[in-house]
């Protein structure tokens, strides 16, 4: 039954219900004090996972304290149920306030943000990251205070976890289940602050995957908020954790400095005064206020359990050990076994910190307002290297093309003028990871400036970057090759191979009217402040070259031009070091002939003997065995990878349902990968569920173990990309498939 209640308390009204529990306002019979009690539904009392999560919330609450956090009094666990006894707060949720006011004055929003940030700072000081800061979890009191509630998915700082939180406010690293840091909470708090002053959330989308993409890659919309708080928004919502304030305490200091500068010394008092006009009426309707007027049953507040716990009478309620003993004694007498965790309990050891085991590459956004211009662009950052000193060197090198460029176009002491239309110049970058593995990473940045001060069309250039991951060294283009730079004859050989590799439509595919040749030192002589006439970077199937085409006699419209030369055409020109890094030495797997396959939204590089069959409109097979390409064998019966368009359905091919094994037929799926087409798959067991990269994007990845009717088992691996509705299925344990998908190139 879900009406189990703690003995010794009288319920006075409901504060809200959720999927796993309910929150009530209750009076302790012995002390007459009013508290909020959060109950786990009794039907989950025998569920070890739900019970552990509920117990974890109480343990987290026991670690944190302060005037801006709703305090834990007790956690009680019995065979009949579990309950968290908390401070009741006399106020309303910020969600309720925004539902009535829609938009707040900046001083009022800053005042609320400051109080809840102080609550976060207390949690951060205790080593805890909240992970679910949102309007429903911020309570606003009439006395001029805001409090933070609901630590249900909080973790210790430094831990990884599943992608949990409220999507509208989740930081980029949170979507990927990355390491939780105090800066994760800063991002969410800034999103809420944006909503308070702009009247809407910073990013909005109907599909969760689209919302994730916006949080990870979309520019920060700080132009939609008042000018005095734009820098706070830009700092707090930085895509890169390292670009945000390190925690709530640091952000509070920045907030106060900005608020004083923009709104004067009385900004906080003015903010609460403005709030009192609207919030005071709402607080008067909160459960505790109604109870004080003699109402026995409190109303249910909108916004869920946490958002409706509308707050305390002044300084809170001190239940202490007397209540603990009373609850324990009464409950033990009734049911025999009871576990009580007090607010200061240290019986439970903190969870073990999880560290990253493999390198992770992220494409992030950096946004800055500089002296007379702004920057909003992409950059690449890695994490997870065992050697943190090397990781730091790599990330410093990955940021260098942006740092140097921002100070070279306009020096700090020589800012640009405003544009003719009164706007300021805008600088931006795109970033593409051409190749990544355990040996090297190669990236190309395309940099542009929107301004008439550098010509009618602004300015544009490209910068390649190749980094050896063993030591963090940047490998210049000239060192990718053996005795090419400075050798006119070998430079001419390279030039000829570029022409031979150009595809129709590329500039180099058509000879210029007055051909010229690359200078002997085209790879080392400076052309831009940090680039040469010829820049190169390894990609999946060949070397990408970015060439200042005008030196070959082409018009400036071709400048720079890009061409990819297959590795097998460069083996005699590459340096021994690079051939080793690329696996092109004797026995290396990268030396095999490869080709590009177009699967719709992106292309992949596969061995030449693999074939992408395109006869079926819904399910296409990439067959990986020679015999599959003949006419006698059905592709589904040969080693293959399946690419399925989930946006297309018909009577015989229903849609794939995420969270279930892949099967787009009306009957059971055959066990082809066991060589048993007469047997069918069943008894699915989900073994892995996580996000995995497909190029620069993330796919929902599931790994299922399926038992065939003959007793054998099939491992089915499924990648699902909701935005493009593409499903990728592998039941043959295809070697190298993960790497092929990681190196996919999106259009």
TrEMBL record:
<keyword id="KW-0723">Serine/threonine-protein kinase</keyword>
<dbReference type="Pfam" id="PF00069">
    <property type="entry name" value="Pkinase"/>
</dbReference>
<feature type="region of interest" description="Disordered">
    <location>
        <begin position="653"/>
        <end position="691"/>
    </location>
</feature>
<keyword id="KW-0418">Kinase</keyword>
<keyword id="KW-0547">Nucleotide-binding</keyword>
<feature type="domain" description="Protein kinase">
    <location>
        <begin position="9"/>
        <end position="256"/>
    </location>
</feature>
<keyword id="KW-0067">ATP-binding</keyword>
<dbReference type="GO" id="GO:0004674">
    <property type="term" value="F:protein serine/threonine kinase activity"/>
</dbReference>
<dbReference type="GO" id="GO:0005524">
    <property type="term" value="F:ATP binding"/>
</dbReference>
<protein>
    <submittedName>
        <fullName>Serine/threonine protein kinase</fullName>
    </submittedName>
</protein>
<keyword id="KW-0808">Transferase</keyword>
<dbReference type="InterPro" id="IPR017441">
    <property type="entry name" value="Protein_kinase_ATP_BS"/>
</dbReference>
<dbReference type="InterPro" id="IPR011009">
    <property type="entry name" value="Kinase-like_dom_sf"/>
</dbReference>
<feature type="binding site">
    <location>
        <position position="38"/>
    </location>
    <ligand>
        <name>ATP</name>
    </ligand>
</feature>
<dbReference type="InterPro" id="IPR000719">
    <property type="entry name" value="Prot_kinase_dom"/>
</dbReference>
């Amino acid at each position: 039954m879900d009406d189990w209640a703690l003995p010794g308390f009288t319920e006075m009204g409901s504060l809200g219900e959720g999927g796993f529990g309910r929150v009530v306002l209750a009076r302790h019979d012995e002390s007459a004090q009013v508290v909020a009690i959060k109950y786990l539904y009794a039907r989950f009392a025998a569920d070890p996972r739900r019970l552990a999560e509920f117990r974890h919330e109480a343990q987290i609450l026991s670690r944190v304290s302060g005037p801006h956090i709703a305090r834990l009094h007790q956690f009680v666990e019995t065979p009949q149920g579990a309950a968290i006894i908390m401070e009741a707060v006399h106020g309303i949720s910020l969600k309720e306030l925004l539902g009535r006011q829609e938009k707040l004055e900046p001083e009022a929003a800053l005042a609320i943000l400051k109080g809840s940030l102080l609550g976060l700072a207390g949690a951060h000081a205790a080593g805890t990251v909240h992970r679910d800061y949102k309007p429903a979890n911020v309570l606003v009191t009439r006395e001029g205070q805001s409090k933070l509630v609901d630590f249900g998915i909080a973790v210790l700082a430094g831990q990884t976890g599943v992608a949990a939180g409220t999507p509208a406010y989740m930081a980029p690293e949170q979507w990927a289940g990355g390491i939780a840091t105090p800066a994760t909470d800063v991002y969410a708090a800034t999103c809420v602050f944006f909503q308070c002053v702009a009247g809407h959330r910073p990013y909005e989308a109907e599909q969760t995957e689209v919302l994730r993409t916006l949080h990870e890659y979309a520019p920060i919309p700080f132009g939609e908020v008042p000018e005095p708080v734009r820098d706070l928004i830009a700092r707090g919502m930085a895509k890169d954790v390292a670009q945000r304030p390190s925690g709530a305490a640091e952000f509070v200091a920045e907030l106060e400095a900005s608020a004083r500068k923009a709104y004067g010394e009385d900004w906080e008092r003015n903010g609460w005064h403005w709030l009192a006009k609207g919030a005071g009426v709402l607080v008067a309707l909160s459960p505790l206020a109604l109870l004080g007027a003699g109402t026995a049953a409190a109303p249910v507040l909108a916004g869920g359990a946490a958002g409706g716990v509308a707050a305390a009478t002044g300084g809170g309620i001190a239940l202490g050990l007397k209540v603990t003993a009373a609850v324990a004694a009464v409950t033990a007498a009734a049911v025999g076994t009871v576990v009580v965790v007090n607010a200061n309990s240290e019986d439970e050891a903190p969870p073990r910190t999880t560290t990253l085991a493999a390198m992770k590459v992220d494409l992030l956004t950096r946004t800055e307002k500089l002296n007379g211009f702004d920057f909003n662009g992409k950059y690449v950052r890695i994490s997870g290297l065992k050697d943190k000193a090397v990781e730091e060197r790599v990330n410093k090198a990955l940021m260098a093309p942006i740092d140097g460029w921002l100070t070279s176009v306009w020096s700090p002491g020589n800012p640009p003028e405003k544009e003719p239309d009164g706007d300021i110049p805008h600088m931006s970058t795109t970033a593409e990871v051409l190749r990544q593995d355990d040996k090297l990473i190669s990236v190309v940045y395309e940099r542009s400036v929107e301004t008439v001060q550098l010509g009618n069309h602004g300015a544009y250039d490209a910068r390649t970057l190749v980094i050896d991951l063993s030591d963090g060294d940047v490998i210049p283009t000239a060192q990718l090759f053996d005795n090419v730079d400075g050798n006119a004859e070998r430079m001419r050989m390279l030039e000829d191979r570029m022409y031979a590799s150009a595809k129709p439509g590329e500039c180099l595919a058509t000879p210029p009217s007055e051909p010229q040749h690359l200078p002997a030192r085209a790879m080392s002589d400076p052309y831009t402040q940090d680039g040469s006439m010829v820049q190169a970077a390894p990609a999946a199937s060949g070397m990408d070259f970015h060439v200042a085409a005008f030196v070959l006699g082409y018009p400036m419209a071709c400048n720079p031009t890009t061409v990819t030369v297959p590795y097998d055409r460069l083996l005699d020109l590459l340096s021994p070091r690079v051939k080793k890094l690329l696996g092109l030495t004797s026995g290396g797997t990268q030396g095999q002939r490869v080709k590009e396959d177009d699967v719709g939204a992106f292309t992949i590089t596969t061995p030449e003997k693999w074939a992408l069959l395109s006869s079926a409109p819904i399910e296409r097979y990439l067959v990986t065995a020679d015999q599959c390409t003949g006419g006698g064998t059905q592709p589904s019966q040969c080693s293959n990878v399946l690419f399925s368009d989930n946006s297309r359905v018909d009577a015989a091919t229903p849609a794939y349902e995420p969270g279930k094994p892949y099967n787009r037929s009306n009957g059971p799926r055959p066990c082809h990968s066991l060589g048993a087409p007469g047997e069918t798959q069943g008894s699915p067991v989900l073994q892995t569920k996580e996000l995995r990269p497909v190029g620069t994007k993330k796919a929902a990845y599931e790994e299922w173990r399926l038992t065939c009717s003959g007793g054998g088992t099939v491992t089915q691996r499924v990648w699902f990309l909701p935005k493009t509705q593409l499903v990728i299925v592998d039941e043959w344990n295809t070697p190298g498939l993960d790497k092929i998908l990681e190196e996919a190139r999106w259009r």
